[in-house]
Amino acid sequence: MSRGYSLVIGILFILSLIFIVVLGDRLGEEIERADRNMTQNAQNNASSKEALTVAYNPPSLENVPDGPQGEAILRGHELVNDTSKVLRQDAASAEDGQKRINELSCSSCHAGAGLEEDSSPLVGVAAKYPNFIARSGDIVTLEERINGCMVRSMNGEAFVEDDEDLDAMIAYFKYISEGIPVGAELPWLAQNEMKEVPTPDVAAGEEKFQQSCISCHAQDGSGTGALTGPALWGDGSFNDGAGLARMSKMAGYIQNNMPKGQEKSLTDQEASNLAAFILSQDRPEFKKHEGDWPGGGKPKDLMTKDLRQQVKDGTIKWDEVLSKSAK
Ligand code: HEC
Ligand code: HEC
């Protein structure tokens, strides 16, 4: 081998050594940088999550802006708080008013026009919608969600798209959702669902109802007024397509909110008994059950006419109605 040739090989060898060392170093730096990025991302995520958990702090109605916007917000508040009265007053005749809507108000379930933190509040809904709703099998807008309660809980007619009253409700919900970012976690929303509903004793539910509920809701459940004790069953109440027509939601609602003034005093068993008694009474029928849960997953605890009849006949199989797979 010539000396010149081994010199070239030697230099090449040294060069590649240097290359390997430098490359290794770079690689180390890269890995370190990736590491740092990852921890930083994790920290960012943690702090953005913190930022997204917002406090319950709706603005006061005394601070609405002047002018048409403020007027719409206040009109929206009035509509949500005293829905049936306001809408019936505006109807062409008393009969039209009754056809349009039942005897309830949004406040009959979303107390204080959705401002009472512990009673199905609606603060932040403008930031939550559009949102996927399994019952609709689709992403629905806030307008559509309001109409969901209009045709079920209020047993009434849906608002048409550009209805001024619907716009006013939206203005109000936007106002009480002010400052809440889209996608924020709002732990006070949709809290009234009992996870495991015990098998009810309907007769015990009736007894408890006569003891603890009739002072406000009347002995026949027809109520004393939308804001003093709304109708729990019968023509003036919600229809059997409403959320509260489900055992899990009714038992959860009763336990969290009733008897008013002594909230959270009932056991799971008592709340279940009461829910079964109330939901086995007659109420308006929802006409479009077939369209619900188009993607499957229809709950079995929705107390439709068939199930009400089964309670009366004594043939109802509560374990099936309340089975976990039903939800
Ligand atoms: C009979 C009781 C009842 C009445 C009356 C009622 N709602 Fe509801 N509303 C419910 C229940 C139950 C839910 C479902 C909560 C859940 O998902 O657990 C709901 C949900 C909603 C939601 C969605 C909340 C969320 O967190 O996604 C909006 C918005 C709403 N209602 C608006 C209204 C408006 C506006 C009215 C009056 C026009 C009204 N509701 C009347 C019972 C009622
Ligand atoms: C002191 C009066 C009072 C008593 C007692 C009372 N409620 Fe209510 N209830 C109300 C009021 C007022 C509302 C409207 C929502 C609100 O303000 O919290 C309501 C709403 C309801 C609703 C939802 C609206 C509807 O029409 O379905 C149900 C269900 C209900 N109460 C069940 C019961 C049951 C069951 C008892 C007995 C364990 C009971 N309440 C005792 C006053 C009362």
From TrEMBL:
One Gene Ontology term of the molecular function aspect = electron transfer activity
Asked if the record carries the keyword Oxidoreductase, the reply is no
Q: Where is the Cytochrome c domain?
A: 92-177, 200-282
Annotated keywords: Heme, Iron, Metal-binding
> Which positions make up the signal peptide?
none
Task: Mention any Pfam family matching this sequence.
Answer: Cytochrome_CBB3
Q: Is Metal-binding a UniProt keyword of this protein?
A: yes
Name of this chain's protein: C-type cytochrome
Give the source species.
Answer: Paenisporosarcina quisquiliarum
